[in-house]
Amino acid sequence: xxxxxxxxxxxxxxxxxxxxxxxxxxxxxxxxxxxxxxxxxxxxxxxxxxxxxxxxxxxxxxxxxxxxxxxxxxxxxxxxxxxxxxxxxxxxxxxxxxxxxxxxxxxxxxxxxxxxxxxxxxxxxxxxxxxxxxxxxxxxxxxxxxxxxxxxxxxxxxxxxxxxxxxxxxxxxxxxxxxxxxxxxxxxxxxxxxxxxxxxxxxxxxxxxxxxxxxxxxxxxxxxxxxxxxxxxxxxxxxxxxxxxxxxxxxxxxxxx
Length: 257
Fold this sequence. Notes:
Order of helices and strands: EHEHEEEHEHEHHEHEH
Distance between the termini: 24 Å
Shape: globular
Strand content: 5-15%
Number of helices: 8
Strand order of the largest sheet: 6-7-8-9
Number of strands: 9
């Protein structure tokens, strides 16, 4: 099994969506050390209190809340590099983190594809697969042009949809549209995340492999992430790493943080 160089998308139980009491920095470091993963990045969800529009779910997860993670870093990280980032939101054309707080972190992941948050992220009038696909293209371009994200989290992966529906939505996006998006990401310095949690199921994997091959050919830089919310989900990083290997992405194509 190919050893991942890093896992830069990991949630701990400071994120409201993680209910695993074992999902702590210490446990994550232990896993990485055991499996030879050199760098792990903690990316709990955040919505800055200075940015209006937070949902009831997001509001308690402000910058002070996620900053508590630094108290959990063990003294002995067993040779594993620990980076503290965050996953913020892009909703209604607004990024839910101030630039000052972004700069206080090692890096920031920003998604455009949390379409399960209907009304907050996905406009209510985007219903059909083609309409969702169109939204994903528009929102991706709008996001990268903000010159804010270190990496785009789970790009174009319609969160909350089945693998089959994921493929149906991505099939609505042409190669030229994908190329336009990934060239823009390269121009604006945003890396592209290969997210292992999005690669379950043959349909979704095939659709993502096509998309990431276009990103590769556009000269994109990549990050790998498990998007783990529980200790068992850290294994998702191998799906991301194996796809990167199949695409021929060497260490020179991965962002080093």
